[in-house]
Amino acid sequence: RKEVEQDPGPFNVPEGATVAFNCTYSNSASQSFFWYRQDCRKEPKLLMSVYSSGNEDGRFTAQLNRASQYISLLIRDSKLSDSATYLCVVNIVGNQFYFGTGTSLTVIP
Amino acid sequence: GAVVSQHPSRVICKSGTSVKIECRSLDFQATTMFWYRQFPKQSLMLMATSNEGSKATYEQGVEKDKFLINHASLTLSTLTVTSAHPEDSSFYICSAFERLSTQYFGPGTRLTVL
């Protein structure tokens, strides 16, 4: 079983739509959680950390459910520039990280 | 966020030559750096974990004699692809781990072996 699982998509949504991605993790001892964004032919960039209480950054909301071992990312009012691959990343302990395979999002005009 | 540089950004070389890629954390000290490889339309694949002052830990299937990693300081790690072949052509990305935070990625190196 993979440490981190994501639906690869692709998700194709119209501009202005709300879209949500989920990611599940297998290790209950996981400590930290992150969403990264990767544009085509570029490096991944940290989008946001995910906190137990949930956190919001503009149109982006991240949530963590430890009981069910999943994290989510909600994007409201999608923009064309949101088109990218979104990576779910879990930090088990110290420098041990596991990456999801990424979810592809295309926002259509 | 923290800044990580990677050099060169692009390299084209002949088969059989060696290529060295540098990864630097510019505004923090990184006890751990990671090296990844990504083929077109595929996921990131972790190649090795590099800890400052010690030998790198390689993932299964990654040849340590072919991909030489050196992490001599808290801000610099290097990956040398030795005797490169066309199948080594890929996008190589490093990341630096900021303690109590997360990984920050360099901009990547696109390697083409002719």
Describe the structure.
The complex is a heterodimer of chains A (109) and B (114). Helices cover 0% and strands 58% of the residues of chain A. With 109 residues, chain A is mainly β. In chain A, strands 2, 4, 5, 9, 10 and 11 form a six-stranded mixed β-sheet that branches. Chain A has a five-stranded antiparallel β-sheet with strand order 1-3-8-7-6, with no helix packed on it. The model of chain A has no long low-confidence stretch (mean pLDDT 95). Chain B is mostly beta strands. Chain B has strands at 4-7, 10-13, 19-25, 32-38, 45-51, 57-58, 67-73, 76-81, 90-97, 103-105, 109-113. At the A-B interface, strand 5 and strand 9 of A face strand 5, strand 9 and strand 10 of B.
Give the SSE layout:
The complex is a heterodimer of chains A (109) and B (114).
Chain A: E1 4-6, E2 11-14, E3 19-25, E4 32-38, E5 44-50, E6 55-57, E7 60-65, E8 70-75, E9 84-93, E10 96-99, E11 103-108
Chain B: E1 4-7, E2 10-13, E3 19-25, E4 32-38, E5 45-51, E6 57-58, E7 67-73, E8 76-81, E9 90-97, E10 103-105, E11 109-113
Low-confidence stretches of chain A: none
| Percent in strands of chain A | over 45%
How far apart are the termini of chain A? 38 Å
SSE topology string of chain B: EEEEEEEEEEE
Order of helices and strands of chain A: EEEEEEEEEEE
Q: The biggest beta sheet of chain A, please?
A: 6 strands, mixed
Q: Any idea what the shape of chain A is?
A: globular
Q: Please state the average pLDDT score of chain B.
A: 94
How confident is the prediction overall: mean pLDDT of chain A? 95
- In DSSP terms, counting alpha (H) and pi (I) runs of 4 or more, how many helices of chain A? 0
**What's the β-strand tally of chain A?**
11
Give the assembly state of these chains: heterodimer
Helix content of chain A: under 10%
Structural class of chain A: mainly beta
How many β strands of chain B by DSSP?
11
Total helix count of chain B? 0
- How much of the polypeptide of chain B forms β-strand, as a percent range? over 45%
Query: Biggest interface pair, residues each?
Result: A-B, 17 and 20 residues
